[in-house]
Amino acid sequence: MTDRNQVIRNTVNELIERDYRTGFEDTVLHRVCSALNEFDGSGQDFWNAMLIGRIDRAMEEFFYFDINLFELYEYAERMSKGPGCFVMDPRDLGS
After folding, report:
1. What is the per-residue pLDDT across 37-56, written as a single tens digit (0 to 9) for each?
2. Is residue 31 part of a domain?
3. How far is CA 54 from the centre of its chain?
4. pLDDT digits (tens, 9 = 90+) for 58-92
5. CA-wise closest residue to 77 among 44, 61, 60, 55
6. Is 28 a member of any domain?
7. Number of folded domains that form the chain
8. Does the residue 87 lie in any domain?
9. pLDDT tens across 18-39, in order?
10. Does any domain span residue 88?
């Protein structure tokens, strides 16, 4: 039976296997949220928990207190920001 934990695990593992790099709006967080939305519509709740720093809520409701999965998610985040990822040039911000 698939649950939120497994959806996150599958998505993150797929990104790691592809050596994924962040695009303009396509971050690891976005990819996981999209997968959760397809699964049970909970992507926005995950997005909110992660962006406002409610890791305790995310750990309970999405990672199911699986620290290994959380570390895997963090690894995918770090990897996605490596060489080849999208980076906004500060000159494009028009100060």
Report:
1. 999 999 999 999 999 999 99
2. yes
3. 14
4. 999 999 999 999 999 999 999 998 888 877 666 65
5. 55
6. yes
7. 1
8. no
9. 999 887 778 999 999 999 999 9
10. no
